[in-house]
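FAQ: What does a ligand-bound record look like?

Like this one, built around NDP:
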Amino acid sequence: MGYIESTLNLAKQSNCPSDSNFFQALKEVLESVRPLIARHPEYLEKKIIPRIAFANKEVKFTIEWLNDNNEIEINSGYRVQFNNALGPYKGGTRFHPSVSPDILKFLAFEQTFKNALTGMHIGGAKGGADFNPKGRSDMEIMKFCQAFMNSFYNVVGNDIDVLGGDIGVGEREIGYIFGQYKRLTNSYKSIITSKPITLGGSLGRASATGYGLIYFTNTLLEDIGMTLKGKICTVSGAGNVAIHAIQKLYDMGAIPVTCSDSHGAIHDPNGIDVDLLKQIKLVERVDLSHYAKRRNGSKFVSKDDYIDGSNFVWQVPCCGAFPCATQNELDLVAAKTLVENGVKMIAEGANMPTTADAIDYFREKEILFAPAKAANAGGVAVSVLEMAQNNSHNYFTSQEVDKKLHHIMSNIYTGIKQTCDEYDLGMDLIGGANILGFKRVADAMIAQGV
Ligand code: NDP
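The answer part, i.e. the structure of the complex:
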C-alpha cells in the first residue's frame, strides 16, 4: 500500500469516517505532493506525511448564554490547532449552523499550507461555533461572543494562537470577542485580527481577501499575456470576500455581473452596483431579493429555482468565475455549464469552493485554475501585518498595506509558478501550490526535530 492510501486509512481510523470535507482536502494535497516525495526521501524517513495529516490539537467546548428572553441557549464551539511548525497558530473563526469538527479540520488543514505560501511565519488553525447570527439582536450577538470567549480564552495567545474572522464573524463580532478577552485577562494583546480600526485593526484588512484574489488573478493573467480589462466575470457570495472582489474587478476594468447569498442569486448585466450591494448586505443585512427590487435590469433567482441545486450564477456566460461564498459550491454540473459557455479561468475566493470532480473536469479541459490556498491568502497576510503593527505599536497607512498586499500576492504567484516549472507541472497551479506549501511546512518540522 502506498503512503497516500496508508495515511488516508490511518486518518480515517482516528477521525470520524464522515469527515468528508477533511478527507477531500487531505487527499488532494497528498496526491499533489507525489513528485516532491519522490525527490525527498527524508520526508518518508521522518514520517512527515502522517505527521502533517494530523491536527496537533482539537478543542471542543460548550457555550452557554442567555438570549433576549432570558432563556438559556447552548452551542458547541471548536478550535482546531493544526500545525505550528512555521509560527503561532493563525486562522479564522466561523459562526454558522453548519460548523462541525469536519469543516473546521479541513479549513485548519488548508490554512496551514495557505499560511506557508504567504512566506510569513504563521502556523494553521481554524475555529468557530454552530451558532447562527442571523436574526439575532445586537445584544444577543454580544452575549454570545462573550460566552464564546469565556469558554476558551486560555487556549489563545498572542504568540500561541491568533484568531480572525470568517463566515458570520465580522468586525462587530470580533470587537466583542476581543473586548471579552481583554476583560478576562486584563491585557490588550493581539489575540484576534480583523479588528475594527478603533481597536488596532489594520487599514485595508476588510478588503484584503477580495482585493488579494484579484491581484493574484491579474498577476497570473499578465504572465500569460491576458488581461481582465473588458471581461465579463461572475462572482458568488455577497459577503466580505465577494463584495471586495467585485469592487477590485471594476478597478481592473472587468465587468462583474453576478453575486449570490444563501437565499438566491442576482444577475445584473449592466454590472453589480457595489454601493447598493453593500447597503443591502452590510447595512440593512437583508437578503438579495431586495437588490433586484431596487435595480432596473437586474433579476433575482431564488435558491429554490436553481437547476439540480447548482448556483444560478454559474449559468451566466463569463470569461472568469470567482466562487466567493462557501465550500463545495461549484459542482460538476456548474463546471460543465461554465466550460460550455466559454469560461477561461476560475479563481477561488472561498475555501475549497470547487468540488473534486469539478476540478478534475477543469483540468481535463485545461481551464486556468487559481486555488484558494494561494488566491485567497491576502486576508491572512494582512492579518499578519495587523499583528506586527499591534506588537510594535506602529501602524501602516492604507497605501502601504495595499502595496504590501499587491507585492505578497505577486510573490505567491511567482513562487508557485517557479515550483510548477521545477516539477514540470505546466500551469497546474493546484499542484504547484500544494508542493510549495507542503515543502515549507515539512522543512520546518524536520528542522525542529521530534
Ligand atoms: P461572509 O459571511 O462575509 O459572506 C459569506 C457569503 O456567502 C454570504 O453572502 C452568505 O450568504 C453566503 N453563503 C455562506 N454560506 C452559504 C451557503 N451554504 N450557501 C449559499 N450561500 C452561502 O463570509 P466571507 O466573505 O468572509 O467568507 C466567504 C468565504 O471566503 C468562506 O469560504 C471563507 O472561509 C473564505 N475566506 C474568507 C476570508 C476573509 O478574510 N473573510 C479569508 C480567506 C477565506 P448570506 O449573506 O445569506 O449569509
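Follow-up question: can I read anything off the structure? Yes, for example: The mean pLDDT is 95.
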